[in-house]
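batch job 7 of whatever, protein = DnaJ homologue subfamily C member 28 conserved domain-containing protein
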Amino acid sequence: MSNIFDKIAEDRIQEALRNGEFDNLPSQGKPINLDYWASLPAGIRAGYMLLKNAGFVPEEVQLLKDMETLREEMSSCPDQEERLAMQRKLQETQLKYNLISEYKKQKK
């Protein structure tokens, strides 16, 4: 007989299915590529999963998101001075991204 934790987990999964909690998930119906996760040591894999689930991303990923947001804001900003300030911020962010990327390349 399976242990009690397996039974509890299975009951919770079945309940979630009945409640539709698995409906309309991102990438639903698409295969999951586990190659990347499988190549990581188990200790690192757990840490990465915790960070990912908590919404943390590597700094360079956040910088790319910030740059895209700045570009979008600049395109719709009517104030010339404000656009110039955003342009400077975009350049600073791009520089920081480039420095981090170059540093990581050199570490390899």
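notes: DSSP finds five helices and no strands in the chain.
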